[in-house]
Structures are given as C-alpha cells and as structure tokens.
Design goal:
Blueprint lengths: L8 H20 L30 H24 L5 H41 L6 H46 L1 H4 L5 H40 L15 H20 L3 H24 L6 H50 L4 H18 L1 H26 L6 H4 L2
Helix pairs in contact: 2-3, 3-4, 3-6, 3-10, 4-6, 6-10, 6-11, 7-9, 7-10, 7-11, 8-9, 8-11, 9-10
Amino acid sequence: MFVSFFPRPRAFFISVLVWLGLAIGLWYLGGRNLGAIIGLPPTPPDAPPIIGVSLFWSKPFLWFDIYFWAAVAIFAGFWRVVAPHPWARWSIWGSALIVFATYLQVEVSVVINRWYVPFWDLIQAALAHTRHVTQAEYFAQLATFAYIAVAGTVAGAFIDFFTSHYVFRWRTAMNGYYVENWPTLRNVEGASQRIQEDTMRFSTMLEDLGGSFVNSIMTLIAFLPILVTLSLQITALPLVGRVPQPLVLAAIFWALFGTTFLALIGVRLPGLEFRNQRVEAAYRKELVYGEDDAARAQPPTLKELFANVRRNYFRLYFNYLYFNVGRYFYLQVDNIFGYFVLGPTVVAGVITLGFFQQALNVFDQVRSSFQYLVNSWTTIVDLISVYKRLRGFEAMIAGEALPALETAT
C-alpha cells in the first residue's frame, strides 16, 4: 500500500514529521523575518488586517510561499539521494502541492472571517439607523466577498483536478506492485477484487482522510489564536459560568464528547465491513466461475453463499441503525451548539452583530477541526476494512501467516 508509492515508508513518514517540526520551529524562531532581506518583510503588529484577495500577493504571504517550497525542495532532494523512487515526484511533490493548496483554502476562510466584522457591523448600523449607510458601501462589501469566493472556487476546482490524478497515480503504483506478485496472490480469496477495487478505494479514502486531517490541523493553526483573542470578550458559558478561555474549552469538550461517543457505538463496524467484502467476493467469484464451468455456481451453492451475504448485511443494518441514531442526534445538536455557548454573552448585549458573526464562525471552524474523527468516522470504518484486505495481500507477499480475520467465519 505504501512501499509502492513512497520511498522507505516507515523512515519516510518519520522524516516528514521531523522535518515539518523543524521547519515550523525555524519559521517561528525568526524565519518569518528573513524575507525582509529580499524585500518581503512581515506584517507590522499594528497594521490593520488585510481583507480581500490582495492578501494572497502581500509581501508576508509571498515570503511564506518561498519558504514552504524551499523546505519541500530540500526534503525532496534528500530523499532523491538517499532512496530514489520512481513515484517520488508524485508522492513527495504531489503531496506537498496538496498540503499547500489546503493551506490556501484555509487562508480563504480566514479572509472571509475577517470580512464578517465590517459587513455585519454595516448591516447593524443600517438596520438600527445609527449612521447613514449608502448602497455603494453595501455593494462594495458584497463585491469584496465575491472576489474572495471566486478565488477560492477556482483554486478549489484546480486542486480537485490535480488530486484526482494524484489518487490515480497512487492506485497505479499499488496495481503495478500487486500485479508483479500475482503468482503469489492469485489464490487469496477475492484477489481480483482486491487489486481492481480495493486499491482504488484505499488510495481515494486515504487521500480524502489525509486531506481532511491536514485541513483540520491548518484550520486550528489559523483560527485557534483568533478564538483565544475573541474569548476575552465572552462573559461566561451556560451552566458553567465564568471560566478562562470559554470558547476554546467549549470547542474541545464538545469534540471530545462526540469522538468518544461515536467510537464507542461504532466499534463493531470495521470488522463487519471487512466480513461483508469477504462474503460478497466469495459470491461473485462463484458466479464468475459459473460462466465458464457448468459444474460451478449450482443453485444450492449460490443459495448458501447468498445466505452469508444476507446474514452479514442484516448485521450491518442493525449496527448502523444505532450508530446513525447517535451520530445524527449529535450532529443536530452540533448545529446550534455555538449559539448555545454564546447565549449569555448575547443576552448581556456586550458585543456587536459583527463580532457575534465572527465569533460564531471562528468557533465553528475550531470546533469542526477538533471533530475530525466525528466527521470522518464512516470513511474511517470503510478504510479500515479495505486496509485489512490489502494487509492480507501483503502478508502473502512477505510469506507471513494471514491475519486472523481472513480465516474467521
């Protein structure tokens, strides 16, 4: 799954974490100021925030772009020397491009969040008649949002196009690796399906989960400091009263509760999904044999195989029933949780509408990032089942015993 696409996977991923930590540390220890040497200084502390697409060609932003790609080039050069790999251009440079694009999308969200304050304060002023608001001011704010949204939409469409190619390259690498070992793998149950379908599903789901994880981390990096600052103006939490950093504590508590709750009620799903793939593969395999051999796919055999399919699906339906009840209930409450948390502050009337909208958006961004496992749980269940099937493949290649789940009834 990984050795086909990444050079020395275990050492590679460890080096990614080490180099990432080092690059981030150097950035905050003075790297952000080095851009001044080439005329790209950091933003002065007292400068107003940039609201609009001009952020993306501001001097601090351009310096970060240079710093990021320089770090990627050094890392890629190191692995090209240490362990050359035919798929390194996609696995290293392609992964870096997806991470960078995720960063851009997060920055789009940050700029939109900044736009909330002047726009909603303008709405409040117009509706409360506290000052005269012209149509030019109103539509200028909408135009600012439109420019940001168009930039984000175009960038998102292009990165989705690239990501599709990235996923297919990963699938191609796995396909080639398994095909080379076909004589060893051909007797594994559902071997054809594992190569044709499971490699596609694995690369797609892992990229989706990996992209979501990176997005969550970058969103936390971007929005958590903003949430900490906004928390200074929040009076108290419902049922709790005054606590330090109320918005941050509420977001962490709610995400941990949801993650633990769904993990407990969904613990059986990965094994059931794996068994479902097994029984489906056995049924399909017998039907395929029956196309060329009249002695195969006889009604009693097919009836027994389909009974296995039916039994496992009914188990899945029952387990997903209570899992979805819990999940949907949590997500419905989640829709109004931010309003609940800000309730005492709104009732006290100590904030403006613009601040309320900004705080609500930042809180939702941070809370959603902490809820990565909650939002991804069903995909994780599918990924685990596919991983177990491909892991059985790799056990055969390595001459190891098949995992216990492969032989369980």
